[in-house]
Every structure is written in C-alpha cells, then in structure tokens.
Design a protein that fits this description.
Layout: E1 2-4, E2 17-20, E3 27-31, H1 36-54, H2 58-74, H3 76-87, H4 91-113, E4 118-119, E5 126-134, E6 137-141, H5 147-160, E7 164-168, H6 175-182, E8 192-194, H7 199-206, E9 213-217, H8 220-233, E10 236-240, E11 245-249, H9 255-267, E12 277-283, H10 284-300, H11 319-334, E13 338-341, E14 356-359, H12 366-369, E15 376-382, H13 385-393, E16 400-404, H14 408-417, E17 422-425, E18 444-445, H15 452-456, E19 458-466
Parallel strand pairs: 1-3, 6-7, 6-9, 7-8, 9-10, 11-12, 11-16, 12-15, 14-15, 16-17
Antiparallel strand pairs: 2-3, 4-5, 5-19, 10-18, 13-14
Length: about 475
Amino acid sequence: MATIDPPAVIGRRPAPLRIHDPATDELVAEVAQADDHAASRALRELAEAAPRWRDRPAGDRAAGLRAWSRALAEHEEELARLVTRETGRPLREALAGVRAGVEGAAQYAELGLGHRGRRLLGDPDADDVMEPRALGVALVLLPWNDPIALAASQLAACLVTGNVVLVKPSERAPLAVAWAVDLLPEALRPAVRLLQGDGRLGARLVADPAVDVVLHTGAIETGQAIAATSARHLRRTILELGGNDPLVVDGDVDPGWAAAQAASGAFANAGQLCTAVERIVVHRRVAGPFLEHLVRRAEALRPGPPEDRRTTLGPLVDQRHRAMVHGHVQGALASGAVARTGGVVPDGPGCFYPPTVLTEVRPEMAVWATETFGPVAPVIVVDDVEEGLALAAEGRHGLAATVLTNSDRTAREAARRLDVGTLKINAVFGGAPAGAAEPRRHSGLGTGFGPELLDELTSWRVVHRCAAATR
C-alpha cells in the first residue's frame, strides 16, 4: 500500500481517499484530499497565470503539448498498469486508453495551430476581424472509466486555446491522472493545477465564480447540478452525461455477426463505457440464433486478473457499483425477465460480475430504461424493424445508437428517427478520430471532442480598426 501526495495538492482533509484494487480488494493507495484553502489557492494562482498563458505564442503552447504527448507515450505501460490497479480495466484495454490520450494530446497540439478567426468584409478603409479568445480558467472534472484518454485530450484542448486548467480526477481513479499531470513539461506547468477529492470538492469548485468554463464527464444527476450552478454564473458548460445506447438488429443480417457486435458493445470493459450497448432490440426473424450466439460469446469471456493479457473480462470498479448493477438485474428478474446466462454474483474477492443476457425484458424495467453501466445485455424481440426503431428512440438519453442492417431504407430511417449524437450503422465501435458529436437531451451539452471542442473553449471577439485622424 502506498501513500500518494499528488502535485499541486496543498493541505489535507481528515479522511484520505482510499483506493482499492477492484480485482482483489487490496488497498492500493491513500490519497490526500484538498481542502478549501487548497482550492482557493489553486484558483487564485490560475487566475493570475491566465493572462500570461493566453498571450503565449500558440506555437509555444503546441510545442509543450507535443512534449507531453511524448512523455505519456514513454510511460504508457506504467500508466496503463496504474489504471488497471485502480479501476480493474484489463491491461490491454487500459493501454488502448492511454494511447488514445497520447494521440489526443498530439492531435490538439496540431489542431490548435489551425484554430483561427476570419476577416470580415466591411468598410474598405477599416479592418474588421473575428478572433477566438481563451475563456480563462477551465475546470476539468474527469470520469474513472477511461481517465487518461479524457485527461490528456481535454487538458490539451484547453491549454492549446490559451486557457489555464484546474483538473479534478474522479475519486475512484485519482492515481494515473496525477502521474500524467506530473509528466507535464516545465513549459505547461504554470497553466495547470490538480486537486484530489470527492464530489464535495467538485461541487465547491463548480460554485466558485473564478471558474470560466466547466468540462464534466459523468452521471446525469451530477451534470444537472453543474448546469444549474453554471447557469447562475452565466458560464459555459460542456457535459457528457452517459447514455443508454440501443442496438437495433434487423432481420436481414447474419445473426452470428450481429451477436459478435452486440457482445463487443455490451461487454467491453465490463460494460463500463459511455457508448456501451445498454439495450438490444432484435428482429424476431433472427432472434433465436442471435441469442444463442450472444450467450455463447458471453460465456466464452474469461474473467481474471486484469494484468493478465489473457483476461477478457475485468471486474467492476468497486463494490458499490457492482451492487447497483446487480440491483438492476435482480429487479428485472423479479419482474419477469429471464437470465439466459449470468445474473449471479460470483464468490471470491474482487468486484467481478458475469456477462449477463436477459430476455423477456420490458421497457419499464430499470435495466432497460436507465444506464446500467455493467456487462448486462437486456434484449427485446420485435416483429419488424420499424417497431424496433421506435423502441430505440424512446427515453431521455441521446448519446449514441447502433443499427445493424443490410437495408439502405432502414439505415436512412434510423438516421431520421434516432436523435443521438453519434449514429453507427453496422459497427458498434470505430469512426474517424477527429469526429465531433453533441449529445442530445439528458446525455449532455456541447461538443466535447474534435476540432469543434476548440470553439467551445473560446469566445469570439470582433475587432473593428479604423485609421486615426491626422492633423
């Protein structure tokens, strides 16, 4: 067990964060929480640094981010192992997340240099330009399920646009982010502070008027509270609040292939992904073989130590989260759903949960209506794809959706009816790396990725310049 005192944490709270390995229940670290004095000092230092950082040449900011990307790449294995220790994510997947962060930092270093304003056509004797300007102090509130990918990308986007950054990792995953911030080159350090703490610290930071923009990835209820507080400050807020993503399987596709897509979407990282498949609608024509293939794929997954590269199913992040996931499953079973596989908490240490396939599911069940965020695949069988699209379109979420079909007509109808930020046809995962999507409804606000994130992190100013009068 180690005691971690992350960079830029000044002061301590009586109870440190206790980080347990979700595969073994072993205590990994105790992390000092920042107190109110630490929060006030960090915000004051950032406010003082903001004008100088904003006025740094864009090329200097980009060069610092390239150096940080290289440093992250040099330590990708160690960072991935730390993510695995604190979240239980299998090492292969954790390494992919770290590499996504490496690429994100490098990408925004280049995108920032191309983020420019435009000249306006006005009086020929005057110059009129629109120029982007940094907002000021950015508060980045990170999730636990993919901490390095989000930290590196969002910090890089903030920094390259001239903003200074206060980052608070999730209290469930503070270690790898602290190390990643500690790898910042000297040129970037004046513009970044890191504070560790739980939701109470997050709420205190969101309420501070010194914060100019908030980026949050997490639960809907937390996002709603952040949005309400930010509204009182008339402050820009960028939120990704999770999804309850549907997968619609048409009757004209190969059921084995469709089951492989469904298993990947529902069980990757034990279902702990914002864009995981949370509910499945399958055409009756292929439902039988589809379910047989899906059950076989679920039962073929190999739980085990996340550091073992043969492991294909890691644990859930902690006991509290496992209890919530199991509660959704038990509630569905009590209301008439059938577990084709899984649904039983295993014996032994850790927070493991078996891949679970549920049939006879109804839309009012919590396992269907809300985000379970675990390795659970609830299935509803429909008689036609139009009924399936209507069912997929229901609910308060609007992050992403997937449709598997050989019909161009069905693909076009899906694009018309599914109001989500990302619509995927015939592929659960994938897509161009620079894509930007804006969540709909309760899944969030603003564009959190791609070149468009740079627009979210700046304000537009018009400069009208005329020649001075001569004597």
